[in-house]
Amino acid sequence: MRQAWFGAITIALPALLAAQTGSGPYARIAVLRPLDGHAVEFEAGYIRHLEWHQQAFDPWTWYGWSIWGGDRYRWFVYATFGHSATGLDSAVTPGDDERDNLANVAPHVEWVENGLYEFLPALSRGSGEPGPTPRLEYTRVDLVPGAGSARAFEAALASRRDKLQSETLWFRLVAGGPTPRYVRLRPRSSLSAVLVGSSEDPLPEAARRLVQRMSVEIWSLRPTMSLGLGALGR
Q1: Can you give the residue ranges of every domain in the chain?
Q2: Residues 6+ apart with CB under 8 A from 215
Q3: Strand runs (DSSP E) across the chain, as ranges?
């Protein structure tokens, strides 16, 4: 019986790990606002929560950013990229994850948003996972609602894809906010690189006509509040 039990475990664990690490186009991006006077407690609690993920052998990579420039200054973003739909269903022990989250993080933050996004390679340059650079330029685009606006917007961006000079990742919001919404992530090595890149027109005219609202933020990578980035994230 002991041998049968061990054999079942050795078969089940690789299958579970494969489900958890299955690659695909989906990303989860969430935003937290640390409560006034709770910044230190929040960061300590979030780091403890990441330690729970590490002890649970979570195979996912988790990015952590602080918003450095924009209306949401000092808010915190966490995200994970490159998952299949079934992979998202196979997170490490969600119940235990939630309990640890409620104990260490929830007392110090306001939950602002939590969205599921689909990577759009036909509009992008790069993979569906951003490089872990010190800075990241984040652009959020809300389109005018209406039949065909999303299709026309994507077609306009696709027509300019061959002109992209650096890593540029477009995602479409699937669930977790107003639609049609798109976000663009552009990893940058420094603030000067962000400023140099800002001279580029972010949208072709055909796409700009479909935009209801657009905002641009600068995010700073927080390696100590990230998990699985390796040496590149340090």
Answers
A1: 24-233
A2: 70, 71, 139, 140
A3: 23-34, 63-69, 76-83, 109-119, 135-143, 169-175, 181-188, 211-221
The residue to which tokens 């990441």 are assigned: 50
CA distance 69 to 61: 24
Residue 214's beta-bridge partner residues? 141
CA end-to-end span of the chain:
46
Token pair in block for residue 209: 């006509």
**Quick one: DSSP state of residue 38?**
-
Tens digit of each residue's pLDDT (9 = 90 or more) over 53-68: 999 999 999 999 999 9
Q: Rounded to whole angstroms, how far apart are CA atoms 146 and 185?
A: 25
Total residues belonging to the chain: 234
Decide if 81 contacts 167 (C-beta within 8 A). Answer: no
Q: Which single residue is written with the structure tokens 């509040």?
A: 225
Integer Cα distance of 82 and 185 in angstroms:
14
CATH code: domain 24-233 is 3.30.70.100
* Summary count for the chain: helices (H), strands (E): 7, 8
DSSP lists the bridge partners of residue 187 as 136
User: Rounded to two decimals, what is the model's pTM?
Assistant: 0.88
